[in-house]
Specification:
The protein is an all-alpha fold. It contains eight helices and no strands. It is elongated.
Length: about 300
C-alpha cells in the first residue's frame, strides 16, 4: 500500500498532472482495499484489538482521501488554470490533503509506540517511520514551491491575457493587461526577496525572478510596438477606405501621395511589429524553458522519484 501511495504522490510532485496519473490513483485504491482485507484476517494480539483497529482506521482514512479528496483534485485541476483565485484555492486544497495525511500518519506512529510500550516491545528502529519522513519532506518541498509558483502564475496568467488581447486586436484590453503584467512583476520581485533559499537551493526562486523580469521586459518594450501597429493599421484602413471610395479620375495628386505615404508607413510598422512579436515569442520560450527545467531539477533534487 505504501509503495503505491508514494508512487502516486511522487508522480504528481514530479510534474505529472493528476488526470494523467488517474490509473495510478486507482491502483492505490486497489492496494488499499487489498491491505484492508489482509489486516482484517489478522488475529487480535492477546485479545487486544487496539493496534489492529488503529491501522484499519488509517486504511479507511487513506481510502477516503484517495477516493474523494484526490478525485476533487482531478476534477478541479483544469479549472484552476482559469484564474489566480482558482489556482490559489486548488493549491490550498492540495496542502490540506497533505496535512490530513501527515496527521493520520502521526496518529498511526503514536499508536505503534503506545502498543509497543504497553507490551514492552522494543522497536528496532525506535519508531522511525520511513513513509512519514518522505511525506513530511514532500510536504515541505511542495509548500516552498507553491508560494513561488503562485507568484509566477499570477504574472504569467496576466501575460496570457495580454497575448489574447493582442491577438484579438483589442488595444484597450491589451494596455490594461500590459500595465497589470508590469505591476504583478514588480510585486512578485519584491515578494521573492523575502523568500529564502530552500536548504541552500535558490534555483526555483532565481528562475521565477528571471521569468518575472522577462514578462516585464516584454510588456515594457515589445508590446508597445505591437499595439502601435494595431492603432496605425486601424488608421490605415480608414485612409484606404476613403481612397478606394474615389475613382481614379476623382483622386488628386495629394490623395495618391497621401495614400502611398500611408502604405509605406504601415509596411514599416508591420516589420517593427512582426520583429517585436518574434522577440516576445523567443523570450517567452526561453523563460518557460528555464522555469520548467528549474522546477523539474528542484523536485528531482529534493523529492526523489518513488516507483
Amino acid at each position: 500500500m505504501d509503495q503505491k501511495y508514494m508512487a502516486y504522490t511522487s508522480a504528481v510532485a514530479h510534474g505529472k498532472r493528476a488526470r494523467k496519473v488517474e490509473k495510478l490513483r486507482k491502483q492505490v485504491l486497489e492496494s488499499i482495499e487489498s491491505t484492508r482485507y489482509k489486516l482484517i484476517d489478522l488475529p487480535y494480539y492477546k485479545g487486544d484489538n487496539s493496534l489492529r483497529q488503529i491501522h484499519l482506521d488509517y486504511i479507511d482514512f487513506c481510502y477516503k482521501i484517495f477516493n474523494d479528496d484526490y478525485a476533487k483534485i482531478v476534477n478541479t485541476e483544469e479549472i484552476a488554470e482559469q484564474s489566480f483565485d482558482e489556482m490559489q484555492a486548488f493549491i490550498l486544497l492540495q496542502e490540506k490533503i497533505d496535512e490530513k495525511l501527515k496527521q493520520a500518519n502521526e496518529k498511526v506512529n503514536k499508536g505503534n509506540k503506545d502498543f509497543a510500550a504497553k507490551y514492552k516491545v522494543n522497536l528496532i528502529d525506535g519508531g522511525k517511520d520511513d513513509l512519514g519522513e518522505k511525506m513530511e519532506q514532500a510536504s515541505k518541498v511542495s509548500k516552498y514551491y507553491n508560494q513561488i509558483f503562485l507568484i509566477f502564475f499570477k504574472c504569467n496568467w496576466q501575460d496570457n491575457s495580454l497575448t489574447k488581447a493582442l491577438n484579438e486586436k483589442k488595444v484597450n484590453d491589451a494596455e490594461q493587461a500590459r500595465t497589470s503584467v508590469i505591476k504583478y512583476a514588480n510585486e512578485g520581485l519584491l515578494a521573492l526577496e523575502k523568500i529564502p533559499a530552500f536548504g541552500g537551493d535558490g534555483s526555483v526562486k532565481l528562475a521565477c525572478k528571471q521569468a518575472l523580469q522577462g514578462f516585464k521586459a516584454i510588456a515594457e518594450n515589445e508590446v508597445l510596438k505591437m499595439t502601435d501597429f494595431i492603432l496605425k493599421n486601424e488608421n490605415f484602413e480608414k485612409i484606404k477606405k476613403s481612397f478606394d471610395a474615389k475613382s481614379q479620375d476623382e483622386r488628386t495628386k495629394e490623395d495618391v501621395d497621401g495614400f502611398n505615404k500611408a502604405v509605406k508607413e504601415i509596411n514599416a510598422a508591420v516589420n517593427v511589429s512582426n520583429q517585436a512579436g518574434a522577440n516576445a515569442g523567443n523570450k517567452r520560450n526561453d523563460l518557460y524553458k528555464n522555469w520548467e527545467e528549474a522546477v523539474a531539477a528542484f523536485y528531482d533534487t529534493h523529492t526523489p522519484h518513488y516507483r
